[in-house]
Predict the structure.
Amino acid sequence: MSRVDKTEGSIEKAEAVVDGVDISGHWNRMLEPRWITDYPTEAMDWVTSLDGGESLRACYQCAKCVPVCPVEHVGSYGPRKLMRKVQLGNNLMEDPDLWLCTSCAACLRVCPKEVDMLQIMPAIREQAVLEGHVPPELAKAFENMGRHGNPLGQPSRKRIAWTKGFDVEVPIMSKIKRKVDVLWYVSDYTSYHPRGHDAARAMARVLTRLGIDFAILGQEEKCDGDSPRVAGEKGLFEMLAEENIATFDKYEFDRLVVMDPHAYNAFKNHYPALGGDYNVLHYTQLLVDYIDRMEFSETLDMEVTFHDPCYLGRHNGEYEAPRKLLEAIPGVKLTEMPHYKATGFCCGGGGGGMWLDGFAADHQSERLSERRVKEAVEVGAQTLAVTCPYEPSRFEDAVKSTGNDGSLEVADIIELLDRAMGLSES
Amino acid sequence: MAKDVLIVGGGPAGLHAARNIADIGGNAILVEQRDVLGGTPDEARYAALTPHLESAQDALDEMRAAVIDRPEIDLRLGSTVLESSGKAGDFKVSVAKNGGEAEQLDVGSVILTTGFQHFDPGRETQMYGYYENPDVITLVDAEKMLSKHEFVRPSNGEKPERVAFIQCVGSRDRRLGNEYCSKVCCGIASKEAIEIRKLLPDTKVYIFYIDMRMYGYWENQLYWPAQEEHNVIYVRGIVTEILKRGDRLLMKGEDTTMGRPMEVEMDVIVLSVGMEPSAGTREMARVFDIEKNKYGFIHTPGEPMDPVSTSVPGVYVAGAAAGPKDIEDSIGMASAAAMKALAMVRSAG
């Protein structure tokens, strides 16, 4: 028997080897448990007094939320654990856990008590924002959105940089001065990010080929504001929404078509309360009605798996349109991952996660996007199809960091359609 | 002469009410829509009764024998009540043999014993894949196997090595609208777990729960023996998803006492489904124009002092037509309802 050393409040074995690993001495130190000496009610009373925070108290600790919470997979997190933290007196204001929720809605889907983290988290975050407890990366993104109308901090004139230098004309509302069928809201990452440009150009080519009468807002377009809303900047959301609504109201159009599921969620579910009520479609919902008119000249011959964006799927119930488009492409064989449709696994970008990459990395064992990429690789996919502008860059980074560079391609559905219709530049 | 008491439903509560009325000198008409008596315990082939594990079929046989061939009890099998009019002491009720012509009956009072139906786990957004995985079954399916003294994996007929029960399926759920505890599932799961362990001593049996609700004596009649004598493993933490892994089932949940997520393989998973009002209960609420509670069970406004009177004078309820009940509750209510129903017809002359 190895010697056991006891000191005040702790105990350790002088020699210990577990599974061949030497954990002698302080490596195996066991601390006495910290006693719970009180169950203060102030934190719970405070959270549930916030507009949106009310349902936290309803949690009865069944734990259905824990195995479906993506953040739980890379740490110890599930909503029922957050509820216990609050019950023990932590109001989360200065807790890193406040910023790790991606608002993916997996917990709300399974919660028998309808504890709504999609309202609880923004309610507490809003208070943290007011008090200045915001991770610096996120604060910077908020500042960019407020000052420049996009989280990347790019000037608005560069929003149309992608329209230059390729052979399709992209009409701009302020220039054409007439009613259009489709007002295409391009969104921030599609407009500014180099990988977004590929999707934007593909979209312009496909719309043109299908003879759809469309135009964009160009420099007048601004961030939809949905992610900052969930990240706690409700004031910023309202400001951006009012600006966008004023712009939309200047023009006439039948359908508002978006690339970004977050924008879809904002326009469909949150703009009406602020006076902006439009016939909103995600681009996959628009194009699914044009499948008969698509002339495919290429066979793509690839194993594809599809990542359901949280804000298109669980939040808004659209699972079929993207799949129908993929299945229409000659040669594409669609294989589902174990987590798909309603059980889809979050990429980590929602709810402010897009601008908390470094912060999340400091508090999680792995990026959610890396988990997802591994799942795609496990089912033998060659292409991970996506349909949210947050995702190409997130998943491409994850493909590299998980060592799958060269074996898994990430592509927006619009890029695959563009390729199969023989329109793409490459 | 006092009028007859109409009893609707031939399960344990209805059988007991009819027998009680006859025993104290009254006359009853017992209407049952199936061609046999015994209600849900018979239809679902219950094996053993909670809590003492005596044979359910023997107990039902005894109850049936007590009402058959008694001059005071007019049995109407394969029949349903179509309409009703009148008031306490003087109801005109039309009853028809299924598919046949309606007959008018004069009755003084009514006891509804139309019971419950088991929750359909397919309603729960297919979260547990009940209709996709043959090895995901319900308490009722398990009971049917146990009544034949066997317990196998439905997918291949083989003996399971590991069996899990998931509690609160279809109960205590705001989203489903079933906010109530179904009261008996914790006890029945423990009872079935004991039966499986007795049949298959090498099979590991687990129960995953939010909280075990063993009111009264069920604590040491079922829970403690299951744990202490039959080595049933109780884990606090409910399961959210069941996925396929090879030819086994993978359960995803959280062990909440450890605060750690779990992914555990099982061969058979039993969903502890709760109770919902039966179609007959909903229909009789319409026929007699009585109030239902928000869950569709028959409302008993006099609770807690009067658990059997409904919102309509002269119409009483017993058993699970009034909400989740065990057989013990149902029998007690049946006697209370029989007393009130008979007093009503006698006072009306």
In short: The two ends of chain B are 6 Å apart (CA to CA). The mean pLDDT of chain B is 94.
